[in-house]
Input
Amino acid sequence: MSRTKIIILSVAVAFFIIAVHQTITLGFEFSYWLFMIPISLILLNRLIDQRESNHKKKHKTTPEKKRSKKVKQQMNRRTKRYMERMK
Output
């Protein structure tokens, strides 16, 4: 886990605790916005996770992919018919 994720989660937990306290003392309608902050921070954390995983998948090269580039692509029936017509 990176530092930014840890900071985001800790701030989310802190705001959630503050929101629960405010709900007990003032009521939910006055602390609603305090519940929205941790939810948005958790969603931000998930977005960062998804971007990191996509970034890792893009830059990961497997030997299978290298092999598939060497193999010639096989033509399907329609392509073969089209190529025969064009001759």
The chain has one domain: 3-86.
